[in-house]
Amino acid sequence: MAFSHYKFQTGDVINTTYKKYILDVRPSSNKNSSARLNGTIIVVHLSVFTSPSLFRRITRDLVRRVISADQLLYLKNLVLELNQKYFNVEVKSIKIKNAKTRWGSASQKGGININFKLLLAPREILEYVIVHELAHIIEFNHSKRYWGLVRRACPDYKQRIRWLKENGKKL
Q1: CA 96, CA 111: separation in Å to the nearest integer?
Q2: Domain spans, the chain
Q3: In this structure, how many other beta carbons lie within 10 angstroms of the beta carbon of residue 99?
Q4: What is the pLDDT of residue 135?
Q5: SS3 state of residue 43
Q6: 3-170 belongs to which homologous superfamily?
Q7: What CA–CA distance (Å, rounded) separates 44 from 140?
Q8: How would residue 145 be classed by pLDDT, with cut points 50, 70 and 90?
Q9: Angle at 121 between CA 164 and CA 159, to 5 degrees
Q10: pLDDT in tens, 33-42
């Protein structure tokens, strides 16, 4: 089920590449809604002052922030592992973003951004996007040389691209 279409009710399970989370959504008399992680349980305190029309969006955003914060170290370690194995480039920053149209991005200065939704994908898909972005630090285009770098690290990259095209909207 697509993350943006999730119901976000107590007992819902959110499976990610790295970890499974269970939601515990509670009403709160506070003005603002909040969320925190308690082990693998995401406790969402949803303000009773929240408009019902905003319930899903606010809950989704809170859950996304909690998961992103919890999985940032996992993502950084995975990027560094793949970088060391295949590229050995200088990576200066690794961030989880909520991009609408991109799975990832890289800067020539060594910044890597990964779309939050990839945390909901199979690990090999997340790894492909990381490899794709790391290769951009070396070759900032989509030339033959660039795709050679990707192929060396991820020989079945075309299958992974196909998976993203076919299943990406479901994340």
Answers
A1: 11
A2: 3-170
A3: 14
A4: 98
A5: strand
A6: Metalloproteases ("zincins"), catalytic domain (3.30.2010.10)
A7: 41
A8: very high
A9: 35
A10: 999 999 999 9
